[in-house]
Amino acid sequence: MNEAATPWQRAFRVLVTVGPGGLWLLVFVLLPTLLVLLASFLTRGPYGELTGPWGFHNYAKLFHPVYLEAFAQSLLVGVLATLISALLGYPLAFYIARHPQRDLLLFLLLLPFLTNFLIRVYAWLVLLQREGLVNALLGAFGLGPLVLYPSFFAVLLATVYTFLPFFVLPVYASVERLDWQLLEAAYDLGARPVRAFLHAVLPQTYPGLFAGSVLVFIPAMGTFVVADLLGAGRVVLMGNLIQQQFGITRDWAFGAALSVFLMGFVLLSLYLYARLQGERGLKDLV
Amino acid sequence: MRRLLTLHAFLVYLFLYLPILVIVALSFNQSRRGVRFTGFTLDWYRALFQDPRVLEYFLNTLTVAFVSTLVATLLGTLLAVGLVRYRFPGKGFLSYLLYIPVVVPDVVMGVSLLLLFALAREVLGFPRLSLLTVILGHITFQVAFVTLVVRSRLLLLDPALEEAARDLGARGWQTFWHVTLPLAWPGVAAGALLALTLSLDDFVVTFFTAGPGATTLPLYIYSSVKLGVSPKVHALSTLIIGLSAFFLALGYALTRRRV
Fold first, then answer.
1. Pairing with A54, which of A6, A226, A268, B74 sits 20 to 30 Å away (CA)?
2. Helix, strand, coil % (nearest 5) of chain A?
3. Where, by residue number, does the polypeptide cross the bilayer (chain B) (predicted)?
């Protein structure tokens, strides 16, 4: 491509373009990741500092029932939030894609999503509190008041609420590219609606479904803010444990081990996703 | 079937807007607690504007967002150009590194940056946690997003356009300035807008990298909410909702006109 350029000129161009950003990634992404890994093998000193001895003791601690339970809860939030997002988001993507005013509908989908994340979580706290709207409505039917907050239910609800657009958008992209002639062909060949959908439509939306699942599952697994505000100590997820170790407890070594574990789990999920979707899959995520 | 789909869509949109509408309505409510509307008032807005700290937090948020977006857009655009145009050792590794800030949970990114800054302070004596460390943290996740967005735009471009410029005698930087950059511009603008949004929205990375005096609006909302439901936060939230609606509508109007 750069036949005219000498090797020196080419090296200079690479240095100017890739140099600053590349260096940034090495210092602020690679180095911190290695530091977390390093810290996870250290020990908490008497003043919360990191010291020796080295070892796997922080990882051994992960198998304590308290921590296993937090992991199980995170996994449950991740899986349930993904499933509920699919139930809500999949039909919605079809509705938007087939609507004459789809630009407007997409705009309306994105609007709450661009409102600050904390405000969206906070809004559920307001709705679910004892004197909140949900209990007021239940009261009108002679029910309640129920203790809706803090609870696992509240955490799950707000998680779905915050990440739902991440599910709808990739599915919408798949539906837009859909070849509807295949559906007609299925009908012509005598398939009933359900069968026609399962064989002619659903497989065409797999890329969107998978991308949407990853985009909901990963942030849902890793969040600590939602559980912090809406679980108020009763729902403890992996993210909350990590935050506690770096905040109150000041056991950075154990916090680092938790981080490595969470990161490893996320990367493993992504690896499985990439195996399923091929190289292109990862690029679809951004 | 069609009707069922319409009903479903209506309910999902109701689910999306109900919390926001409730916040907006309550910000004008006289009652401090609960959802019973006891009368219209602007008291909470008055209280908000009379709090000098809120202006400071607002300015902090804007400073972080604009400085980090500027730096990240510059670094990310150059990096994307380099990744698309040249071959060099370590290219594959760098491409993988780009995905780390995108896929790794915020909390892990926050604590890893905290460890980096703690070590840097131990060894080099700086930086102490402040607005600067928040900006460094924001640039880090923004660079990854900007690079990926600009890169996908550059990959769509026809390399023949740059070759033509060179055949006509343009030097390397002339080709870049007069051909590559104008063609990549929509990608750069989209990347910058995404970076700005991410910065304004970020709570987690800020939470771990902010020192004293570096409170941003999301940090302020978090600490107020921890103390319980507050009408002042309703008022602040309503203002932020209004502002994001305005900017989104502006973007929507601009893209529509172009098409």
1. A268
2. 75, 0, 25
3. 6-28, 57-84, 96-119, 131-156, 176-196, 203-221, 233-254
CB contacts under 8 A, A 90-109 vs B, are 91-92, 94-96, 103, 105, 107-109
Residue B119 included in any domain? yes
- Considering the domain architecture, whether residues B13 and B97 belong to the same structural domain is answered as no
Per the domain annotation, does B46 fall within a domain?
no
What DSSP element (H or E) covers B13?
Answer: helix B2-26
Which residues in B lie closer than 8 A to residue A4 (C-beta atoms)? 166
Q: Is residue B138 within 8 angstroms of chain A, CB to CB?
A: no
Q: Is B123 an 8 Å CB contact of chain A?
A: no
CATH number for A61-282 (one of 1.10.15.40, 1.10.3720.10, 3.40.50.300, 3.40.50.1220): it is 1.10.3720.10
Q: Give, for all 259 residues of chain B, the pLDDT tens digit.
A: 778 889 999 999 999 999 888 888 888 888 777 677 778 888 888 888 888 888 899 999 999 999 999 999 999 999 998 898 888 888 889 988 998 998 899 999 999 999 999 999 888 887 888 899 999 999 999 999 999 999 988 888 888 888 888 888 887 778 888 888 888 888 888 888 889 888 988 899 999 999 888 899 999 989 888 887 788 888 888 888 888 788 777 777 766 654 3
B242: in domain:
yes
Write out the two tokens for A187: 């009908």
Domain housing B72: 52-255
What are the structural domain ranges in chain A? 61-282
Residue B225, domain member (yes or no): yes
Q: How many CB atoms neighbour CB B122 within 10 A?
A: 10
DSSP track, B182-251: HHHHHHHHHHHHHHHHHHHH--HHHHHH--TT---HHHHHHHHHHT---HHHHHHHHHHHHHHHHHHHHH
Alpha-carbon distance A260 to A40, whole Å?
8
